[in-house]
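Human: Cast an eye over this sequence-structure pair and say how the chain folds.
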Amino acid sequence: MRDRILKLLFCIGCVTIAILVTYFILKEKKEDGELTLYGNVDVRLVDIGFRVPGRVQQLFFEEGDLVKEGQLMCLLDKTPYDAEYNQAAANVNATLANLKLSEILLKRRKELIGIGGVSQEDVDSAQANFDQLVANLQLSEASLAVQRDNLTYTEVLAPTDGIILSRIREPGTVVNPGDPVYTLSVLSPVWIRAFVDEPDLGKIYYGMPAEITTDTKDAPVYKGQIGFISPMAEFTPKTVETTQLRTDLVYRLRIYAENPDWRLKQGMPVTVKLRPRK
């Protein structure tokens, strides 16, 4: 009987200690003011296309490939653009030749008018012809610049590091300007979309440090900071709402997160912890 009483007292003591420990832990967290938010890694996509029409000549990546910023992604057939560029360059050279001849004739007529060798009308005509050729040169040089740009636009470079989500076209396809050829998923910077309750809005600020964790076991804790706080309230989004939160007003946050190991994937659910200043 005595042993039973001792065991009962021991169990009661253990339960009491556990309750006290839990109480102080919760109290410490409450006093610390830590905010725990739930969100997702934003899905950020770029549609890759050409700025000029033409026939797709080559695509260098498949779906799932990693692309580095500045890498050549795809090419159009350059043949028509090479011809137009060469034609514009020839027009510039021809205009330059005519301009040089016109300048020589104008100079001679200005010298001869002093001795009565030519009339003022001849000088005025030579000056007008020279001015016209100067304007023609400017026009042809502008046309050459346009053709040079068009030739450059037959190549598409990766605007940022990313992963190919979709390869939409294949070589031989004739595309118009802006038609998507690839869909690229942006890797960096990583944006976390989360929502904060209206009563906690005054506790957060721009640049506030954040700790981001995932549901993956033994995954590291990622560092980040708040980069955007929406000025407009909205009802709790369906993606994060519960029955109790359906009518709550929240404010959208964007947290810029470091992702050195690229383990933060787009669309992944994450937990964000914020510690307001005391």
